[in-house]
Give the backbone structure.
Amino acid sequence: MIALGKECYHEINGAIHGYGRKWSEKDLSSALGNEVADLVYDESGNEQIRSILAGVVATEFEKAELEKVLASTDTIKDWQVGEAIAECYLSKYRNCLFPWPDGRDVRRPKSSLPGADLVGLIGEDGETRFVFGEVKTSTEKKWPPQVCGGRSKGKGLGKQVRELCCDENIKNRIFLYLGHRAGAFAEQYKVAARNFLLDRKDVHVVGFLVRDVDPRPEDLKSIVRSISSVRSEKTSVEFWALYLPNGKINTLAESVSMARKGGAA
Protein backbone atom coordinates (compact mmCIF):
# COMPACT_ATOMS: atom_id res chain seq x y z
CA MET A 1 0.00 0.00 0.00
CA ILE A 2 1.09 3.60 -0.56
CA ALA A 3 2.55 5.08 2.62
CA LEU A 4 2.68 8.80 3.37
CA GLY A 5 6.22 8.40 4.65
CA LYS A 6 8.14 10.16 7.39
CA GLU A 7 8.34 13.95 7.12
CA CYS A 8 11.93 15.11 6.60
CA TYR A 9 11.45 18.80 5.80
CA HIS A 10 8.89 21.34 4.60
CA GLU A 11 10.05 24.26 2.44
CA ILE A 12 7.70 27.26 2.12
CA ASN A 13 8.03 30.37 -0.01
CA GLY A 14 4.85 32.41 -0.09
CA ALA A 15 2.09 30.06 -1.27
CA ILE A 16 4.52 27.48 -2.69
CA HIS A 17 5.21 24.40 -0.60
CA GLY A 18 7.90 21.75 -0.95
CA TYR A 19 7.50 18.52 1.02
CA GLY A 20 10.27 16.03 1.74
CA ARG A 21 9.16 12.52 2.78
CA LYS A 22 11.08 9.30 3.42
CA TRP A 23 9.94 5.73 2.74
CA SER A 24 11.21 2.71 4.65
CA GLU A 25 12.08 -0.63 3.04
CA LYS A 26 8.66 -1.89 4.11
CA ASP A 27 6.88 1.14 2.60
CA LEU A 28 8.62 0.64 -0.75
CA SER A 29 8.06 -3.12 -0.86
CA SER A 30 4.36 -2.71 -0.08
CA ALA A 31 3.88 -0.07 -2.78
CA LEU A 32 5.72 -2.03 -5.47
CA GLY A 33 3.79 -5.18 -4.64
CA ASN A 34 0.39 -3.53 -4.94
CA GLU A 35 -0.71 -0.24 -6.52
CA VAL A 36 2.53 0.55 -8.32
CA ALA A 37 2.79 -2.84 -10.03
CA ASP A 38 -0.89 -2.64 -11.03
CA LEU A 39 -0.34 0.78 -12.56
CA VAL A 40 2.94 -0.03 -14.33
CA TYR A 41 1.39 -3.06 -16.01
CA ASP A 42 -2.09 -1.49 -16.35
CA GLU A 43 -3.88 -4.39 -14.72
CA SER A 44 -7.24 -2.57 -14.71
CA GLY A 45 -6.93 -1.96 -18.46
CA ASN A 46 -6.06 -5.58 -19.09
CA GLU A 47 -9.10 -6.67 -17.11
CA GLN A 48 -11.33 -4.41 -19.22
CA ILE A 49 -10.01 -6.02 -22.40
CA ARG A 50 -10.62 -9.50 -20.98
CA SER A 51 -14.18 -8.47 -20.14
CA ILE A 52 -14.83 -7.02 -23.61
CA LEU A 53 -13.54 -10.18 -25.28
CA ALA A 54 -15.19 -12.64 -22.90
CA GLY A 55 -17.74 -13.76 -25.50
CA VAL A 56 -15.25 -13.76 -28.37
CA VAL A 57 -12.14 -15.43 -27.01
CA ALA A 58 -13.52 -18.87 -26.28
CA THR A 59 -10.92 -21.58 -26.85
CA GLU A 60 -7.94 -22.24 -24.60
CA PHE A 61 -5.63 -21.38 -27.52
CA GLU A 62 -7.32 -18.00 -28.02
CA LYS A 63 -7.19 -17.25 -24.30
CA ALA A 64 -3.50 -18.11 -24.19
CA GLU A 65 -2.82 -15.87 -27.20
CA LEU A 66 -4.70 -13.00 -25.58
CA GLU A 67 -2.62 -13.36 -22.42
CA LYS A 68 0.54 -13.25 -24.51
CA VAL A 69 -0.54 -9.94 -26.01
CA LEU A 70 -1.54 -8.51 -22.63
CA ALA A 71 1.84 -9.49 -21.22
CA SER A 72 3.81 -8.10 -24.17
CA THR A 73 4.65 -4.73 -22.64
CA ASP A 74 7.91 -2.97 -23.48
CA THR A 75 10.77 -3.44 -21.06
CA ILE A 76 9.96 -1.43 -17.95
CA LYS A 77 12.48 1.25 -16.98
CA ASP A 78 13.30 2.36 -13.43
CA TRP A 79 12.13 5.92 -14.20
CA GLN A 80 8.74 4.59 -15.32
CA VAL A 81 8.32 2.98 -11.92
CA GLY A 82 9.30 6.33 -10.40
CA GLU A 83 6.49 8.02 -12.32
CA ALA A 84 4.04 5.33 -11.20
CA ILE A 85 5.07 5.89 -7.58
CA ALA A 86 4.41 9.62 -7.98
CA GLU A 87 1.01 9.01 -9.58
CA CYS A 88 -0.11 6.58 -6.87
CA TYR A 89 1.14 8.92 -4.14
CA LEU A 90 -0.67 11.99 -5.48
CA SER A 91 -3.84 10.00 -6.14
CA LYS A 92 -4.00 8.90 -2.51
CA TYR A 93 -2.74 11.94 -0.63
CA ARG A 94 -3.73 14.86 -2.88
CA ASN A 95 -7.09 13.63 -4.17
CA CYS A 96 -5.87 13.54 -7.77
CA LEU A 97 -7.50 11.54 -10.55
CA PHE A 98 -5.25 10.42 -13.38
CA PRO A 99 -7.75 8.59 -15.61
CA TRP A 100 -5.39 6.17 -17.39
CA PRO A 101 -1.71 5.17 -17.51
CA ASP A 102 0.45 6.84 -20.16
CA GLY A 103 1.10 3.46 -21.76
CA ARG A 104 -2.40 3.41 -23.24
CA ASP A 105 -1.50 6.35 -25.47
CA VAL A 106 1.79 4.96 -26.75
CA ARG A 107 1.44 3.65 -30.31
CA ARG A 108 5.13 3.12 -30.94
CA PRO A 109 7.91 2.23 -28.51
CA LYS A 110 9.91 5.28 -27.38
CA SER A 111 7.29 7.72 -28.70
CA SER A 112 6.78 10.80 -26.55
CA LEU A 113 3.44 12.07 -25.27
CA PRO A 114 2.42 15.72 -25.22
CA GLY A 115 2.45 18.18 -22.38
CA ALA A 116 3.37 16.67 -19.02
CA ASP A 117 4.19 13.40 -17.28
CA LEU A 118 0.95 13.43 -15.30
CA VAL A 119 -2.33 14.96 -16.47
CA GLY A 120 -5.67 14.71 -14.73
CA LEU A 121 -7.96 16.36 -12.21
CA ILE A 122 -7.67 17.40 -8.59
CA GLY A 123 -10.52 17.88 -6.15
CA GLU A 124 -9.73 20.60 -3.62
CA ASP A 125 -11.84 22.97 -1.50
CA GLY A 126 -15.02 21.74 -3.18
CA GLU A 127 -13.71 22.52 -6.67
CA THR A 128 -12.34 20.38 -9.50
CA ARG A 129 -9.39 21.70 -11.49
CA PHE A 130 -6.87 20.35 -13.94
CA VAL A 131 -3.64 19.03 -12.45
CA PHE A 132 -0.44 18.84 -14.49
CA GLY A 133 2.65 17.16 -13.07
CA GLU A 134 6.30 16.58 -13.88
CA VAL A 135 8.24 13.70 -12.35
CA LYS A 136 11.99 13.22 -12.12
CA THR A 137 13.75 10.12 -10.80
CA SER A 138 17.38 10.51 -9.80
CA THR A 139 20.15 8.36 -8.35
CA GLU A 140 22.68 11.19 -8.41
CA LYS A 141 24.46 11.81 -5.10
CA LYS A 142 24.19 15.57 -5.31
CA TRP A 143 21.80 18.03 -3.64
CA PRO A 144 19.94 19.15 -5.68
CA PRO A 145 20.45 16.65 -8.51
CA GLN A 146 20.89 17.87 -12.08
CA VAL A 147 17.35 16.77 -13.00
CA CYS A 148 16.01 19.62 -10.86
CA GLY A 149 17.71 22.11 -13.18
CA GLY A 150 18.07 25.82 -12.71
CA ARG A 151 16.38 28.82 -14.25
CA SER A 152 17.90 28.09 -17.66
CA LYS A 153 19.32 24.57 -17.46
CA GLY A 154 17.74 22.32 -20.07
CA LYS A 155 14.53 20.49 -19.22
CA GLY A 156 14.96 20.26 -15.46
CA LEU A 157 12.08 19.93 -13.04
CA GLY A 158 12.09 23.63 -12.22
CA LYS A 159 11.92 24.73 -15.85
CA GLN A 160 9.20 22.22 -16.77
CA VAL A 161 7.03 23.28 -13.84
CA ARG A 162 7.47 26.92 -14.85
CA GLU A 163 6.33 26.04 -18.37
CA LEU A 164 3.22 24.34 -17.03
CA CYS A 165 2.49 27.46 -14.99
CA CYS A 166 3.06 29.97 -17.79
CA ASP A 167 2.82 28.39 -21.26
CA GLU A 168 -0.77 28.60 -22.53
CA ASN A 169 -0.01 26.51 -25.62
CA ILE A 170 1.03 23.54 -23.47
CA LYS A 171 -2.02 23.92 -21.22
CA ASN A 172 -4.39 24.27 -24.18
CA ARG A 173 -3.01 21.09 -25.72
CA ILE A 174 -3.49 19.13 -22.50
CA PHE A 175 -7.01 20.57 -22.13
CA LEU A 176 -7.92 19.14 -25.56
CA TYR A 177 -6.07 15.89 -24.91
CA LEU A 178 -8.15 15.25 -21.77
CA GLY A 179 -11.36 16.41 -23.41
CA HIS A 180 -11.08 13.97 -26.31
CA ARG A 181 -10.73 11.14 -23.78
CA ALA A 182 -13.07 12.34 -21.03
CA GLY A 183 -15.49 9.41 -21.16
CA ALA A 184 -16.26 8.16 -17.65
CA PHE A 185 -14.89 11.31 -15.99
CA ALA A 186 -16.81 13.75 -18.23
CA GLU A 187 -18.64 15.45 -15.34
CA GLN A 188 -15.41 16.26 -13.49
CA TYR A 189 -13.89 17.41 -16.77
CA LYS A 190 -16.76 19.84 -17.36
CA VAL A 191 -16.20 21.54 -13.99
CA ALA A 192 -12.44 21.78 -14.47
CA ALA A 193 -12.88 22.97 -18.07
CA ARG A 194 -15.18 25.82 -17.01
CA ASN A 195 -12.62 27.02 -14.46
CA PHE A 196 -9.88 26.74 -17.06
CA LEU A 197 -11.76 28.61 -19.79
CA LEU A 198 -12.56 31.46 -17.40
CA ASP A 199 -8.86 31.72 -16.56
CA ARG A 200 -6.08 29.69 -18.21
CA LYS A 201 -4.01 30.12 -15.05
CA ASP A 202 -6.58 28.32 -12.86
CA VAL A 203 -4.73 24.97 -12.69
CA HIS A 204 -2.74 22.99 -10.14
CA VAL A 205 0.87 22.11 -10.98
CA VAL A 206 3.04 19.52 -9.22
CA GLY A 207 6.74 18.82 -9.38
CA PHE A 208 7.64 15.38 -8.00
CA LEU A 209 11.17 14.14 -7.32
CA VAL A 210 11.97 10.50 -6.54
CA ARG A 211 15.40 9.89 -4.98
CA ASP A 212 17.32 7.16 -3.16
CA VAL A 213 19.76 9.26 -1.14
CA ASP A 214 19.62 10.91 2.27
CA PRO A 215 16.96 13.65 2.41
CA ARG A 216 18.15 17.25 2.26
CA PRO A 217 16.01 20.39 1.89
CA GLU A 218 18.46 21.73 -0.72
CA ASP A 219 16.65 19.49 -3.24
CA LEU A 220 13.57 21.72 -3.24
CA LYS A 221 14.69 24.99 -1.70
CA SER A 222 15.79 26.81 -4.86
CA ILE A 223 12.98 25.68 -7.16
CA VAL A 224 10.33 26.51 -4.55
CA ARG A 225 11.82 30.01 -4.39
CA SER A 226 12.12 30.40 -8.17
CA ILE A 227 8.51 29.42 -8.90
CA SER A 228 7.18 32.00 -6.44
CA SER A 229 8.38 34.77 -8.74
CA VAL A 230 6.64 33.56 -11.92
CA ARG A 231 3.39 31.87 -11.00
CA SER A 232 -0.01 33.55 -11.03
CA GLU A 233 -2.15 33.75 -7.90
CA LYS A 234 -4.65 31.48 -9.67
CA THR A 235 -2.03 28.77 -10.25
CA SER A 236 -1.37 26.62 -7.21
CA VAL A 237 1.99 24.85 -7.17
CA GLU A 238 3.55 22.25 -4.92
CA PHE A 239 6.69 20.12 -4.94
CA TRP A 240 7.32 16.72 -3.43
CA ALA A 241 10.57 14.87 -2.89
CA LEU A 242 10.04 11.23 -1.97
CA TYR A 243 13.16 9.49 -0.69
CA LEU A 244 13.41 5.73 -1.14
CA PRO A 245 15.90 3.59 0.81
CA ASN A 246 19.46 4.25 -0.36
CA GLY A 247 20.42 2.63 -3.67
CA LYS A 248 16.94 1.30 -4.54
CA ILE A 249 16.13 3.18 -7.74
CA ASN A 250 18.31 0.98 -9.94
CA THR A 251 16.32 -2.06 -8.77
CA LEU A 252 12.80 -0.62 -9.21
CA ALA A 253 12.02 -2.21 -12.57
CA GLU A 254 13.31 -5.61 -11.46
CA SER A 255 11.39 -5.40 -8.18
CA VAL A 256 8.08 -4.46 -9.77
CA SER A 257 8.51 -7.25 -12.34
CA MET A 258 9.05 -9.76 -9.55
CA ALA A 259 5.97 -8.44 -7.76
CA ARG A 260 3.87 -8.98 -10.88
CA LYS A 261 5.11 -12.55 -11.12
CA GLY A 262 4.21 -13.17 -7.50
CA GLY A 263 7.66 -12.87 -5.95
CA ALA A 264 8.86 -10.57 -3.23
CA ALA A 265 9.16 -6.92 -4.30
Q: What stands out?
A: Residues 6-41+76-260 form a domain with the Restriction Endonuclease fold (CATH 3.40.91).
